[in-house]
Amino acid sequence: MTESHTPPSGSARLNTGVAHNARVWNYWIGGKDNYEVDQQVGDHVASINPIIRDIARADREFLGRAVTFLAEERGMRQFLDIGTGLPTAENTHEIAQRIAPDARIVYVDNDPIVLVHARTLLTGTRDGVTDYIDADVHDPDAILRRAAGTLDLDRPVAVMMLGILNFVLDTGEARDIVRRVMAAVPSGSCLVLTHPTFDAEVGGELQVPAMEFWNKNATPPITARSGAEIAAFFDGLELVEPGLVSCSRWRAASDSAVVVPQYGAVGVKP
Length: 270
Prior knowledge:
The protein has 270 residues and is of the alpha/beta class. The protein contains nine helices and ten strands. The strands form two sheets. Strands 2, 3, 4, 5, 6, 8, 9 and 10 form an eight-stranded mixed β-sheet that branches. Helix 4 links the parallel strand 2 and strand 3 (104-109). Helix 1 (21-28) packs across helix 2, helix 2 (36-48) runs antiparallel to helix 8 and helix 3 (52-73) packs parallel to helix 4. It is globular, with a radius of gyration of 17 Å. 48% of the residues are buried. The model is unreliable at 1-12 (pLDDT under 50).
């Protein structure tokens, strides 16, 4: 069963003259849903930070491992994927519903090209539900209100925030968003998060100049944070082993994965 809350007016916001994160990210992971301006900005960012494509791929692979872990080992059947980005292979609902056909997934994004593709491509199983809502991470109350039409917020929910809080530039606001969302879901719910860092121990030195270029030439603006700042998003939650690590190393099959300056972790609400 698939539902969509895509507004017909969404296409009015589409701006193909300025690089946009969802499309540049799509370009970095080998997708086709991007424009020349996205490719130009993406290539320039890669010239500043040569491992940016590794970061993009590692983030996507982390999603697969995290959803598999939650569906298989924790029996999670509800996922709220905030800032989903453009659909590619192995989306949250595909992984979760392959394990549990009755899983319910709500995707959240506010980019018009994502809206169009999500309505077309994010189709789920007959027994489960795949829904899409147009909402902004800066308005968590609206996200929760609309997600409650598909998800039972009295039962555990996996809240997915992969590469999204870096677009909330104020750290206090970003922490408040996480607190408000996690306060609305019950014990046993999980926060799944990735976030770019400038920490040198994971190779983050080049993140700052790359992001400076990005903020002058693309949208929306972005920021990196320290490991300590990112860990604070999990205050009050119990981190699943191995804790907060480079997302490429989180429950990876081997230690040979390239370490990327993008932290990842899963926390459980007690």
